[in-house]
């Protein structure tokens, strides 16, 4: 879905995607209708099949709550490994402080073993891994069909009650070891 959003927005770079599920990659390929199919590759755990400093932009959407707590550090290290100097990652996650999000996750089979991650904990973890520049915004305060609330959504992005959040992570200007 994120690759489709980028393609439809006119993103000019090459698009790549990876997942730990071959079935999800097949589903993504079968639903792709937005020009040439991106390079979709199977991922082994936290390790993505790309060389160091491959990307200027990385999106991670609703993934971390599926990653066991003791494996999340591997994901953070991998993001930093993959980003080019001055690159940027956007990490979208479900907000555990939103009661509707809690209810949806609790009643969704794919989220059976999910462990929701507060934005502050994600930011602290990224900083422990050497990322010093982050910015958090909260999203989805109202149903998307309520188009008249979009102006209000923008004003509330600081309030940690939205259904989701996004943490922007900026890579250093020079690559780390």
Quick overview:
The chain has 177 residues and is of the alpha/beta class. Helices cover 30% and strands 23% of the residues.
Could you give the topology of this structure?
Blueprint: H1 2-8, E1 16-19, H2 22-31, E2 39-42, E3 55-61, H3 72-82, E4 83-94, H4 99-106, H5 119-128, E5 133-139, H6 150-156, E6 164-170
Parallel strand pairs: 1-2, 3-4
Antiparallel strand pairs: 4-6, 5-6
The class by helix and strand makeup works out as alpha/beta
Q: If you compute it from the alpha carbons, what radius of gyration comes out, rounded to the nearest whole angstrom?
A: 16 Å
Order of helices and strands: HEHEEHEHHEHE
Strand content: 15-25%
End-to-end Cα distance, whole Å, is 32 Å
Extended strand count = 6
- The DSSP helix count reads 6
Uncertain regions spanning at least 5 consecutive residues: none
Main sheet record: 4 strands, mixed
Shape: globular
Strand order of the largest sheet: 3-4-6-5
Tell me roughly what share of residues is in helical segments: 25-40%
